[in-house]
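User: Last request for today: this protein with zinc ion, please.
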Amino acid sequence: MQITIRSEKKELLVQTVSIAPNEQDPDNLYLFRCPYDGETLGTQIKGNVVKISPGIEPRNDVPTFQICHKCKRLYTFQTLEYSKPNTKITLVSPPLGAIGIFYCWLCRSPILQFTGNKVVKLPDFKLMQFPFEMSCSNPACPAKYRINDVVQM
Ligand SMILES: [Zn+2]
Ligand SMILES: [Zn+2]
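Assistant: Here's the final one, the structure of the complex with zinc ion:
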């Protein structure tokens, strides 16, 4: 998506974060962190993050965006009715040759490192094949993930 900041056109990566009610913990609010650098966006979310995927997903209302001030990714949030035990992720590969780190949205632990279409699980650097399921590398964190794929943008 292109946006104009002070008459300068910029290309920005948009991510859609899908949230669903959390039956086990219906009242808890979580601070959402950018999974590409662990920065907090200042957005509180109520419920489970069930999916983080690149692009704007079809929706009825006018989307609003939050920017990560560190990496300049834009985030838009949508609510789904069904809950899932894990968060579905489609990774966005960094520019050629660069190494991307994926951080738990909930506790900010680094959980994956990726470059091109190769992804390793942290902290043991185990090479993974898509799709795969994993728990957060922090044993005290309840987050679980299903990593679907990595895409180039
Ligand atoms: Zn960021
Ligand atoms: Zn975590």
